[in-house]
């Protein structure tokens, strides 16, 4: 019987944050944010297929067992891999420059990662 190595958050492709910019707050209390950075573990040649593939134009960025946001691509430079993402949340997210956020496709839900990784 073949034993598979347990998947860890470190095994996912990462969006490495270089900047976090808050924007306007909606009447419902959601704050819009822009994240600057770039993807690691997703070759630039396959970026459009992996991130913007078939289906919704959004995906999850996961940090830790319980932290996740639903983000979409605002802009992407194919030559430099510089990417700007947008998302809306209530309150200030616990995201800082230098942090790597794990990429999870829109096929899943952000909370699935916590369920799988929680010992």
Molecular structure report:
- It is a single chain.
- The chain is mainly beta and 119 residues long.
- It has one domain (12-117): Elongation Factor Tu (Ef-tu), domain 3 (Beta Barrel), CATH 2.40.30.
- It starts with 13 loop residues before the first strand and ends with a helix.
- It contains 2 helices and 6 strands.
- It has a 6-stranded antiparallel beta barrel with strand order 1-2-5-4-3-6.
- The mean pLDDT is 80.
Q: For the report, how would you describe the main beta sheet?
A: 6 strands, antiparallel, barrel
Question: Looking at CATH, which topology would you report?
Answer: Elongation Factor Tu (Ef-tu), domain 3
Q: Give the DSSP E fraction (strand runs of 2 or more residues).
A: 35-45%
Q: Compute the gyration radius: what is it?
A: 15 Å
Find the structural class using helix and strand composition. mainly beta
Number of helices: 2
CATH class: Mainly Beta
Distance between the termini: 23 Å
**Helix content, binned percent:** 10-25%
Kindly state the number of beta strands: 6
Q: Can you list the strand order of the major beta sheet?
A: 1-2-5-4-3-6
Low-confidence stretches: none
The assigned CATH architecture is Beta Barrel
Round the mean pLDDT to the nearest integer and report it: 80
Spell out the helices and strands N to C. Answer: EEHEEEEH
As for the number of domains, it is 1
Name the overall outline.
globular
């Amino acid at each position: 019987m073949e034993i598979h190595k347990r998947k860890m958050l470190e095994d996912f492709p990462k969006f490495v944050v270089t900047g976090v910019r808050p924007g306007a707050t909606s009447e419902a209390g959601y704050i819009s944010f822009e994240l600057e950075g770039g993807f690691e573990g997703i070759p630039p040649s396959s970026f459009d297929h992996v991130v913007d593939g078939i289906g919704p134009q959004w995906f999850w960025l996961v940090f830790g067992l319980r932290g996740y946001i639903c983000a979409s691509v605002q802009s992407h430079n194919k030559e430099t891999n510089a990417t700007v993402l947008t998302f809306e949340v209530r309150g200030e997210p616990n995201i800082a420059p230098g942090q790597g956020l794990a990429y999870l496709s829109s096929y899943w839900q952000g909370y699935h990662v916590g369920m799988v990784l929680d010992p």
